[in-house]
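User: I'm putting together a teaching handout on how sequence relates to shape, and I'd like one worked example. Could you take Cytochrome P450 305A1 from Tribolium castaneum, show the sequence you're using, and then write out its predicted structure as tokens right after it?

Assistant: Happy to. First the sequence, then the structure tokens directly below it.
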Amino acid sequence: MWLAVLLFFVFVVTYVIQQVKKPPNFPPGPYWLPFVGNLPQLKKLSKKLGGQHLALSHLAKEYNTNVLGLKLGKDYVVTVFTYPLIRDVLISEEFEGRPDNFFLRLRCMGQKRGITCTEGEEWNTLRNFVNRHLRNLGFGKKPMEKMIQDEICDILTILKKDGSDIQVDKFLAPCVLSVIWTLITGEKISRENNQLDELLDLFNLRSKAFDMTGGTLTQYPWLRYFLPEWSGFNLIKSVNTSLKNLFMKYIREHKDGWFEGRNEDLIYRYISEMKTNTEASKYFTDDHLVMVCVDLFIGGAQTTSRTLGFAFLMMIMYPEVQKKVQEQIDKHYDKNSSIEYSDRYKLPYVEAVLLETIRYRYVVPIGGPRRVTKNTTLDGYYLPKNTTVLISFYSINNDPENWQNPEIFNPERFLDEKGSLLPDEKLIPFALGRRRCVGEILAKNCIFLLFVEILRRYNVSLAPGSKPPTGKPIAGITLSPESYRVKFTERSL
């Protein structure tokens, strides 16, 4: 009896020691608790400081390290700070993997599918397909710009009727979404589509509910059985069901209407690839197609519209900047001139304002999680295979060594003494390497054209009766501007 108790005691002590023992030369960080690691500490600190990105930066400063080592539940999680180290991670092959955890599989409807969560040959094949065929459909070319201009015309028509009280990011999100939708399905999605508003609301809820580590649900998936609402399980299930039903409807319609040589949108081109008899065709399934659509849908809808939301918020908070933007636009264009993305070199101050908005309020403070595909080292520290790596873009954009007074909104930091644009390699909103953002070209076009076309016709100010914004972002998977409403007043040109 006593021997059994003693053996059990020894087993428990040994297990606890193994739970809190760090791998040799693992990056600095706080001590780990048995079973939960640093999860309670990180959640508490994130809530106190206003976001996971702030909590991670706080811990990195506390432990005086540019590579922070944590354990969240059973997973080793390392966060990387400073531009040189982040650049190394982004371009190095051993950091190209994606974690295989419950949250990411749930995001992909039970399996790792699409281009965001896959890796290796599967990811490479699908990514190359998407890049190639989006270009063939006009991505980054005149046809795509024409789609954006058509959406801008719709927006200007609405503002002409009544622009007295509008929530900017929600107002602009359908514009970006519609361009992506047309490229994927060949159809223009209507602003009056109630399902579109519901999906945008679901995305916003999802973003606020989770962080880039997937929230508590990643470490403790069994919580979905006992606390499905609190853990966020029901929310993700709701998003998944809505998205899958939506895209499968269009996939079925496309399959019914497909014939050899039909290629006017991404789904038709994908179906053509499904019907080829090649080794790569095994990756072209309905499940993969749904997730490819979701990846493009989520990535394009939120990040671009939220960046524009912050950009117009800065114009309200800094009216002198708005005035200088409009003066530069007026210098080169009259009311009836057409503006193209290729004209941006004429508007260096406008570009500087947009670059500074991205730096000052970058909507993705923590990059999508990477997985170490083999034992490796970073900054002299040992990272075991399958370690999750988080990238702190927030730290780059707010590092005093990179930017003078980073807490101040100052577009002039991107201009030289002659007023010419002075880009900085340390601002990397679309990442680097082979996992660089697929939607970069669309995002740049949308942000520039929407910003310029609206401000050359309208002054923006806070809508009457609206609470003055503080400019402080709302944290989640992506940062979003606090809710504010805008009055668009037509300019006399």
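A couple of points you could highlight for students: The mean pLDDT is 87. The beta strands are 67-72, 75-80, 166-167, 366-371, 376-378, 381-383, 388-392, 458-462, 485-490.
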